[in-house]
Amino acid sequence: MNTNTPSKCDVVVIGGGPAGSIASGILAKKGYNVVVLEKEKFPRNTVGESLIPTFWKFTDLIDASEDIENEGFLQKTGGVVSWGGKVKTVSFKSFGIDRKALHVERDRFDEILLNKVRKLGANVLEEMKVTSIDTSNPQEAIVKYTHTKNQEPSQIKATYVIDASGQQAIFSKQRRTRVFDKDFGFQAVWGYFDKSYFYDKNLKVRSFEERYENGGMTAVSEIGNWGWSWKIMLREKVSVGIILSNKHQPRFKTGGTTLEERFDLFSKGIPLVGNMLSESTLIPGSVKSIRDYAYQSTKLVLDNCFLAGDAAAFVDPISSEGVPVSMYGGYLAAWAISNSLKKPHRKEFYKNTFAQEYNKRLKIFKILAYPSKQIPDHLFKLGQKIIHSFSEQELLLILAQSNMTGRFETLNKLLGSHSVSRDVKEVGLVEPIFL
Ligand SMILES: Cc1cc2nc3c(=O)[nH]c(=O)nc-3n(C[C@H](O)[C@H](O)[C@H](O)COP(=O)(O)OP(=O)(O)OC[C@H]3O[C@@H](n4cnc5c(N)ncnc54)[C@H](O)[C@@H]3O)c2cc1C
């Protein structure tokens, strides 16, 4: 047993990604005794580099926005999209959105957040892998973990636990509450190229060297009926990913013998994205793949453990909602826990409100991931009830995002007679662009 680590605290947060950092930052700022247990040593790599401006309202809460501004991440000015046989462009400015969208290296972005959490007073312990969470005692949970270097076991007691362990989803796996989403049984494959051409906000094609002065549009391209591809300009490399629906997985397997070869060949053949990779080289060893990444836990809070971020649910990265929705989960968990610590007799109310509100957001996240005409009826009806609780600003952001991928009908159908006024026409269609 390691004697240098704390044996007790108010809240243990498992995972130092966006969900964990927002939750622990808010709680530490309020003066609670928070311990973050993170398996990796930061900076650690992860996918999810296109950030829509919703994230700022959460980074504001933990005073991290200035550090993010100062880092000099490339700005995402909007999107250029090949979808349904047409090429369209969307600029965030047309939707009255004035805070920046970014293309971030997630190792650095997440590190900035976690460093801020430390400064706010949380005890961040890296290279500590949580192995189990015992919530059988309603007064005190026990979290067991091991040091990843020397395998030394430890444990810590806490009044509350937040599982923000991402796709590892440690608690929902342990309690068998994770249900995979059959409609999104896709495979994602992504990797990094050394450079690429890109579109600036005026749709001029630029070379990689011009990226700092001209920001970048996220390039998105449809693959078949439901699959799609992204190209995201980063500061020193270019992120390319493909989401393969079940139908397109056999097509992916026909070229090349290794995953890298297949990915290289397939990416370069994708409309819009492939054209911009004509002089790019795939960075060896950079290709990764994930299957069955769409799921939700049937319980978002169980006993004294709250689930936030990918540990609670994930659908599909199509709407670039992953990071903001995860941060929202962290924010809501921190809200529920700080209130429960102040008023323990009301804790069931805060738990229920957390689960109810979070579930609403997750349902909209899921609805927006479906192609407009394929949303299951029950989900659509639920969405109609929920959507009115969203702010005008958030609706505009959702509209801007869903505009890119032919999903724009969804939002206005959900809103019915209250549909948001800025419709597709205003963003202006650009008829096919040839490089
Ligand atoms: C292919 C793909 C593309 C995506 N693209 C985008 C995008 O463009 N934009 C966007 O906003 N989102 C995107 N996402 C989603 C986004 O990456 C996630 O939603 C987001 O990272 C979730 O944040 P989190 O804090 O919940 O989890 P994570 O960021 O995964 O952090 C979880 C942390 O928990 C730690 N951990 C795991 N297990 C343990 C353990 N047992 N003990 C201790 N620590 C542990 C991990 O090391 C990690 O640091 C994408 C997702 C996929 C799959």
TrEMBL record:
Residues 8-177 form the FAD-binding domain. This is NAD(P)/FAD-dependent oxidoreductase. GO terms for molecular function: oxidoreductase activity. It is an enzyme of class 1 (oxidoreductase). Its EC number is 1.-.-.-. Keywords: Oxidoreductase. The lineage of its organism: Bacteria, Pseudomonadati, Bacteroidota, Flavobacteriia, Flavobacteriales. It holds the Pfam family FAD_binding_3.
